[in-house]
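Each lists chain and fold; for instance:
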Amino acid sequence: MWRREAGTVVRRAVELPQSDAVPFAVIAGSQVVRVPTEWAPHAHPLHELVWVRGGTLTSRVGDRVFTVVEGHGLWMPAGIVHGGRATAGAEFHGAFFAPERTPVAFNEPQAIMMTPLLESLLGHLSRTDLDEAARARAEAVVFDVIEPSHRQLTLQLPGDPRIDAIAEALLDDPADDRSLEEWARHMGTSDRTITRAFRHTTGLSFAQWRQMLRVHRALMLLSEGFDVMTVSEVLGYAQPSSFIAAFRRVMGTTPGAFFAAEGTAGSVRNPVSADRNS
């Protein structure tokens, strides 16, 4: 995924029992991630729903990178191999669902709307003193209220050997501002070949794809408390207004308005100012 931050801890996923050995339909818990943390690629026998408060979560599944900010979660179906990353200081939450007891059919990874009700229910289910009837009632309401988010922030990676090196270089350094022509010379090919390859594999032009990648990275930086001026510099924009315009083209709103609407601006470290970012 992104260039690994200094001090990042790489963990293996916690081993879970097979679904037929799980006593409940839903198992939930949380932890505070003190340092940048990655989870090596793995799969679970249970469905997984993860979300964070005060940070950002990213996950790579094959040729797709998912980014979820506070107010959203990521559903990962059982058996899907994925890796993950959480930003330092994030409050990391997870819930596991026994497939045969879960009447929710999300067959692909996708963002989930983490409403206050859903978060409260899953927090309730993390208790160890619930009797069977109380747990069953809470689980039934979870199944009723869980639903996909209207924001599916997914970056499609090319998965094409002709341009994979370009994608990996930009993931490593989103500020790399080489033009299409410069990349063509570097790769020993034509700009038309690169354009066609990006269109075919991602549905976007090279410029649109790079812009989308930068917005994914911007969401991580903004949620960590960096201001728009710093983020625009890190991502290679000549001035903050150019970054804000690019963010608006992808997200339909400015960074400040986005975080205010998502309800995250007041809870991240060094909170982002809606006034400064609009």
